[in-house]
Amino acid sequence: MRKKLIAGNWKMNLNASRAQDMLVEFIEKPLAIDVDVLVIPPFTSIPKAYEVLNETHIMLGAQNLSEQNEGAYTGEISAEMLTDLNVTHVLIGHSERRTYQQESDELLNKKIKRALEANIVPILCVGESKEERDENRALDVVKAQIVNGLNEVENDGSIIIAYEPTWAIGTGDVCSPEDAEEMAKFIRETIEGLYGKEVSEKTRILYGGSVKPNNVAELMGRENIDGALVGGASLKADDFEKLVNFGE
Asked: Which of 62, 106, 159, 210 is least surrounded, with the fewest CB atoms within 10 Å of its CB?
């Protein structure tokens, strides 16, 4: 049985002091013990976040990492730097980085390998645009992102896949729980084709498309959706608590 995971991606929000205040409030709330919780702050807020979370069961993630180990790469953050900050998970290929930084599958593949070398769990983000969905290419696009992103990558089932339908994020269009489950099932089948059934059954697949307290329970009730990658709704302690406690 795959344990549910609620991951809060704060994007470029909450500086160090505000992050600390939010998390101090959050950890005082009664949180479900059968749900894993992951907080993914901006790099500058990671140390303060760890100060608050280090004696809790809440895990700490980063939003990106460099494909390089070290060197003259101004503005980059290495895997070693993240592990030194007690980071256990890292987002790879978030839709915003694919779009704004033009990150390719080949680059993301290198980042995944670098994360695994450092014993950081990668969360590979995949998803199609509105144009790709309208052209009935959604499955092909997502499969290519997975196959190329995991090229020559050893996987025991610990790599997490997050499905982000970019057409349903902040656009007014809605990805129904049925559509989200259909894609999650397809992603699991794709993982099975690459690594076998045992690995596919271990793989956690998250949904990340405008997840909010009023729709999280229905999404989490689907067979192949093992959690959520949440943006804005994870920035406030009250909202984040409702997401983590979706089953109550």
From this structure: 106
